[in-house]
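> call design_seq(struct)
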């Protein structure tokens, strides 16, 4: 079954905060969209056993991976290997929109199967609602 999403339709901002939206969650991958308001960020963290790829859709900022900062902008792709700390810092004066993909997916990690099933049901319900007139 083909499941098509338009990322631009998912972009949403919350004054003073960031908005995360699940795009696809499967046993093998996770994909989410994150919309940052000025002054928000994602603190350095790591994912045990999960590689992660970031794609910047709009805005500019810095992604730090393993202590090494890299400037990013629209079209930038950045790879963060599993178990390595990384963080995202959008520029203070503007918004930033990015998509990230992590693999393996949550269901492949211990203790995450139930959360992955809930996320999959939630994503399907959202997609079904978007199709209805």
């Amino acid at each position: 079954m083909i499941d098509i999403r338009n990322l631009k339709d998912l972009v949403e901002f919350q004054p003073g905060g960031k908005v995360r939206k699940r795009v696809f969650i499967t046993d093998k991958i996770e994909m989410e969209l994150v919309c940052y308001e000025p002054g928000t960020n994602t603190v350095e963290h790591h994912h045990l056993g999960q590689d992660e790829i970031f794609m910047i859709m709009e805005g500019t900022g810095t992604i730090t991976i393993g202590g090494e900062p890299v400037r990013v902008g629209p079209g930038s792709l950045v790879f963060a290997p599993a178990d390595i700390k990384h963080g995202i810092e959008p520029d203070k004066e503007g918004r930033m929109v990015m998509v990230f993909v992590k693999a393996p997916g949550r269901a492949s990690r211990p203790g995450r199967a139930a959360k992955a099933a809930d996320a999959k049901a939630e994503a399907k319900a959202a997609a079904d609602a978007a199709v209805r007139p």
